[in-house]
Design brief:
The chain is α/β, with parallel strands linked by helices. It is built from 15 helices and 18 strands. Helix 2 packs parallel to helix 3, helix 5 packs parallel to helix 6 and helix 12 packs parallel to helix 15. The two termini are 16 Å apart.
Length: 554
């Protein structure tokens, strides 16, 4: 099979390895217990040596931190909690000196309630130009006391909050798909569109190489549409076809304008979308040549550990992306999802609502074996790969955080029924045998408490262990970046037993992943490049269950 689209010299993003830095939990440079720009700068050589091509940094803008920084009060600055604008400039320069590109998060669906625009909107009153920047509506009922629609917040509860007007009387309602502290912007407003295009230019001028767009599919709402029916049990509403709050046709016009801004830079910059849609084909519509460069592959991330399901997602992804000339992305985790070591160790191995995971048993050893195999699948596929901080250490989800430590607004909005996302955001263990495990200076206290067991999972503890998860990632990334078999975009399935994924890339390189319940033989003529399991633990000519291998067979 010939390559679908040969990448050009400047299309680095088509096969890049992008490492996500959740800034609060990556590295703490000043000892206040919260990760910061100084911490990231101190670890840039590590990220370069690991094999990353770029880093994506979660929001560092000024914010009241109602949602970990995804409630932005000033899109052009840096919150003092994380550092200064001068430190941000230095980080960008130092990353570039090391050959790393820098991608920032941008949050266009909503601002903070502390943003000057929203403060002005509350003071200005109904019908004002200030309120027209947000989604304000009159309530239903004789006295306007019922919300305009029955829409629910992603974080739990209703999606509308009523304001008190300047005269002290109950007034209009404003929309917030997330927390009340995150009012949604009105993207039909030309002023909103112009402001965000200017924000893009501001950071591009500072040297940023691109943006990851938060809630990229949710900016445009269909206010005329009937309220959607409840989604199937365990399926988030924003991935259901026909949702009036997501994946509306009008959103594409916004990204065509953003693409013109990105393409107008020298060199051109990139745009990556957090796109939740009902199918890979719907996602690919955001990746047409005049829109986004990439979108996170949530269908792959959410797939259960099942060969048929994974193959179907891979096929749909490759076909839909090829139709628009886009490179696929592959991802196993991020700051919103259960870490794969825990997810793959459960009886149900796909993504679903976290409430449904409570009490499910976790076989961490099984989850670790599957996570090791999954990364060879991920990195063996053509396209770009996105890694979430700490997955290279094999970190599990921390599901026993003290309730008093929980910070995710989901915990409060759900009436303490859903613990939220804090378990995948626990600060990284870098070194030492006790907290803070090198996350911050000795004696500092991380903002979320890391488990004592993480002493065995720290970067320092794994660095000299050839069988560690870290060693596997380092070898896999070195091969991905250096072996000609993984350099292009060629891909072809090969015949394989039930429950086994087997495909070939360039130069005779093959990837085999055994998701069946029995060992499968490997070709005697092969040259093994890398295995996810310990080859000397059993038959060296067979691949055991929940294992993967890269090999040459010529």
């Amino acid at each position: 099979m010939s390559p679908r689209h040969a990448p050009t010299a400047d299309a680095w993003w088509r096969r890049a390895v992008v490492y996500q830095v959740y800034i609060r939990s990556f590295a703490d440079g000043d000892g206040d217990g919260i990760g910061d720009i100084a911490g990231i700068r101190s670890r840039l050589p590590y990220l370069r040596d690991l094999g990353a091509d770029a880093i994506w940094i979660t929001p560092w803008y000024p914010s009241p931190m109602a949602d970990g920084g995804y409630d932005v009060a000033d899109y052009r600055g840096v919150d003092p909690l994380f550092g200064s604008i001068e430190e941000a400039d230095e980080l960008i320069r130092e990353a570039h000196d090391l050959g790393l590109r820098v991608i920032l998060d941008i949050v266009p669906n909503h601002t903070s309630a502390a943003h000057p625009w929203f403060v002005e909107a509350l003071a200005a009153g109904p019908g004002s130009a200030a309120r027209a920047r947000y989604v304000f509506r009159d309530g239903r009922g004789a006295d306007g006391g019922e919300p305009p629609t029955g829409w629910g917040s992603v974080f739990g509860g209703g999606a509308w909050t009523r304001v008190t007007e300047a005269d002290g009387q109950p007034g209009q309602w404003y929309l917030h798909l997330f927390a009340p502290e995150q009012p949604d912007l009105e993207w039909d407003n030309p002023e909103v569109r112009a402001a965000f295009e200017d924000i893009l230019r501001t950071w591009f001028e500072r040297g940023v190489d691109g943006f990851r767009i938060d809630v990229a599919s949710g900016l445009v709402k269909d206010h005329a549409s009937p309220e959607p029916p409840p989604p199937p049990h365990g399926v988030p509403s924003y991935v259901v076809a026909g949702d009036p709050l997501s994946d509306q046709e009008g959103v594409h016009e916004i990204y065509r304008a953003w693409r013109r801004v990105a393409d107008g830079q020298a060199p051109p910059r990139i745009l990556l979308g957090e796109v939740h849609a009902s199918s890979p084909a719907r996602v690919a519509r955001y990746l047409r040549p005049d829109e986004l460069h990439g979108a996170f592959n949530f269908h792959f991330l959410r797939s259960p550990w099942d060969a048929a399901r994974l193959r179907a997602v891979i096929d749909e992804t490759l076909a839909s992306h090829a139709a628009v000339g886009a490179a696929p992305t592959w991802v196993l985790s991020n700051h919103d999802e259960t870490r794969q070591v825990t997810r793959y160790g459960r009886p149900f191995t796909g993504i679903r609502e976290r409430l449904l995971d409570d009490g499910q048993p976790v076989d961490e050893a099984l989850g670790t074996r599957r996570a090791r195999a999954a990364v060879l699948l991920l990195l063996g596929l053509p396209g770009s790969a996105y890694l979430y901080q700490g997955e290279e250490l094999g970190l599990p989800e921390v599901e026993d955080l003290p309730e008093a430590a929980l910070r995710d607004p989901v915990w409060t909005r759900s009436g303490h029924a859903i613990r939220g996302r804090d378990g995948c955001r626990v600060p990284l263990p870098w070194s030492g045998t006790a907290p803070p495990f090198g996350f911050g200076p000795p004696g500092s206290t991380p903002w979320l408490p890391p488990p004592a067991s993480w002493a065995e999972r720290s970067l320092e503890a794994q660095s000299e262990d050839p069988g560690s998860m870290l060693a596997l990632y380092r070898r896999a990334l070195a091969l991905r970046n250096g072996h000609p078999g993984l350099a292009g975009e060629t891909f072809a399935w090969l015949p394989a037993p039930d429950g086994v994924l087997l495909f070939e890339r360039d130069d005779g390189l093959r990837c085999a992943v055994n998701l069946s319940g029995a060992p499968v033989p490997l070709p005697a003529s092969r040259t093994t490049l890398l295995r996810s399991d310990a080859a000397d633990a059993g038959d060296p000519d067979a691949l055991p269950p929940d294992a993967a291998a890269w090999y040459l067979d010529r």
